[in-house]
Amino acid sequence: MLRLQFKGVSRHFPPKRGRSESEGVLAVDDVNVEVGDGEVVSLIGPSGCGKSTLLNLASGLDRPSKGEVFVDGAPVSGPNEHVAFMLQKDLLLPWRTVRRNIEFGQEIRKLEPDKRRQRAEMFLKRFHLDGFADHYPHELSGGMRQRAALARTMMMNPDVLLLDEPFSALDAQTKMVLQQDLAGTLADERKTAFLITHDLVEALALSDRVLVMSRRPGRIIKEIQVDIPDRDNPMERRQHERIGPMIAQLMGLLDIGSSEELV
Amino acid sequence: MAVIQDAALTPDHAGPVRRRVNLVSFLHRQEVWLSILALAAFLASWEWGPPLLGIAPYNIPQMSAVWSEGLHMWAHGDLLRHTMITCMEVIIGFALGCAMGAIIGYALGMSRLLEAVASPYILALQIAPKVAFAPLFVMWFGYNITPRILTAVLIVFFPVLINVLTAVRSVDPAMIDLARLFRASRAQIFWKIEFPWSMPALFSGLRIGATLAVIGVTVAELVGGNVGLGAVLAESEGQANTAAVFVTIILLTLIGILAYVLVILAERMVLRYAPQRSADDIGV
Lengths: 263, 284
What we know:
Chain A is built from eight helices and ten strands. By secondary structure, chain A is of the alpha/beta class.
């Protein structure tokens, strides 16, 4: 069963009023991607190649100019319950405690307060935040804030998780710990995830497949199957002997080291 | 706007900075003693400076003269009643001005169209010296408390409106998107994102408003009427009673300080989530 599907999707941003037609931007061009149930797929590509545009289209915040995005077989026409989105910025509301931040989405969906609290309690525990439930975001470290953002996303029990460089603002060690948490949760709950990242190791350590995008207008130029065990244990997977050659292959595809502009 | 950024973009390492002020350690702080010393020096030079420098009492009366004039006015001049009337005008003017400023600020903040239509008038009124309207209000409403309250409303209105409007406009669009992803309604976006986001800015508007309200009321009282501290001030000036003028200036200042401190205390209660800043500003 397909959880997420991009079918011939293009997104053209028209020029600002008064500018010539040529100043419009074709961000992504004819993208076809299929993500099956329980699959974790990563998307890498140069800066500004339209990766985030794809996630905005999948989340329903934006609409494609051509083609269609499907989630659970239904065309996406706006924000919906099937997907949840997590960004590089934690976007915790500074006036809410960690607990109330985690409850935020379900509060908007008007889940009964009892059930909401119960559920939040569960996710506080799972993401090792129980000691900080009543702290405000400014009292937390960057890693814990991002953990809270992850808990808030999981709280929605989405069919598809959209992750836009979720760990790129964290230091290397915190990042590894959070990747481990995420991979464990995704495997336990058999969640489907579509992950954008700049970090080639992260892409390989967390996913079943890696898609490589070209410079703008973004097209999918390569798909790599990551047939290495331990998808639920990135710490282990990072050290696998086949990771090195795969990184080399990705660097080649992205022109890293040979061209003027790096990823 | 700095206030908003402080609350929203607090760096991770900021941590809680709430301090319990211990009286003993407080008295050990050097700046406390220096402040007390400075106060003593100020009062002493006020008391003995004018006679030493040959300044006439009708220019700068001694501290003791001002004090005894204050006691006299309290006993014989209905000083308490005048003070209470001024306080009441300040409170009503402040409350109405803040409420109107906030409501219109939020309304303009949520509608680009409304803002585009109203902004030239707002700009013009913001530049106009608000206290200049006081005589007009007296002509319209007579020698009663209405012109005083109206002048206070007018002068308090703008800083609150501008602060609220700027804050609503500055909400991180990604936060709005977050709420939209959860399929929040327009009302939910306002009450759960925009309104709490604007609170620090609203309070800095209220702080400015608290001191401006006293100015508005005082000017309108100076223009006309025979109750309120401004009227006492004008009357004392007419009698060339410098000590009484000093007494009213001091009382008006105290009302301003009281209003300001009350706003700060309210701010501290409401904005508990943010690292404490405002309280340190005035050393409370």
